[in-house]
Write a structure and sequence with these properties.
With about 170 residues, this protein is an alpha+beta fold. It has three helices and nine strands.
Length: about 170
């Protein structure tokens, strides 16, 4: 009886030693996989929020020339963040002046302010807060001038080819 108990105890100890050798690798693989899943969920949720924010448009109830003057007034004094580009569009800067390009397009007897293209950095578009601020500044400037504004149709975007290891330029689809 003592021999059987000794064999069982020795087998259990050997089993624990062998198991302990494999346990850190198993724990590391399991935690890495769980972290990757959580990161992917966060990335997908955050990207959905950012694309919805960048897809928001602003309908300015004024002729395009008046809306263009309103837009120029809205970016005045914020040249660090907003740049009127050579073609008349407005660039929003994260790193470069044209990281996000905003255009004012005719829309019946009105003008529609919308994002045409943007670049992501660090795996995400970084200019969504500045786009939200620009819409707010344009709305405030319109209120000062007695011009009505409303939300326009939501734009959607397609991701272009990678510019580096994980960042790309996005283009407005509709």
């Amino acid at each position: 009886m003592d021999t059987v108990l000794t064999v069982v105890l020795v087998a259990a100890i050997i089993g624990l030693l062998v198991g302990a050798a494999f346990l850190p690798g198993w724990v590391r693989r399991s935690s890495t996989a769980a972290g990757a899943r959580a990161g992917a969920r966060f990335t997908a949720e955050r990207m959905t929020e950012l694309l919805a924010d960048l897809g928001a448009t602003l309908r300015i109830q004024a002729p395009p020339e008046v809306a263009a003057a309103l837009l120029r007034a809205a970016v005045t004094g914020r040249e660090k963040d907003y740049t009127v580009l050579a073609d008349g569009t407005v660039g929003i800067r994260f790193v470069e002046p044209d990281d996000t390009v905003v255009d004012l397009v005719p829309d019946a007897e009105q003008a529609l302010l919308r994002v045409e293209t943007f670049r992501d950095y660090l795996g995400f578009p970084q200019t969504a807060p500045l786009w939200r601020e620009l819409r707010e500044r344009a709305t405030a400037e319109a209120a000062v001038r007695g011009i009505g504004v409303s939300d326009g149709p939501v734009s959607t975007f397609d991701r272009g080819d990678l510019l580096d290891d994980r960042n790309a330029r996005w283009f407005r689809r509709s």
